[in-house]
Write a structure and sequence with these properties.
single chain; 47 residues; mainly alpha; elongated
Length: 47
């Protein structure tokens, strides 16, 4: 008998120059799809 399903939450942080940022984000999104994981972009910036 299996116990209740407990979803896991994690954060992926992508650091890159503005020129490389979109490519880096797409690469992470593709890796998540390949791993059957859900990923969402959070559009914010921290300094």
């Amino acid at each position: 008998m299996r116990g209740p399903f407990l979803p896991a939450t994690g954060m992926v942080v992508v650091s890159a120059s503005l020129d490389e940022l979109e490519h880096a984000v797409v690469a992470v999104e593709q890796a998540a799809i390949h791993a059957s994981s859900e990923i969402r972009r959070l559009r914010d910036q921290q300094a």
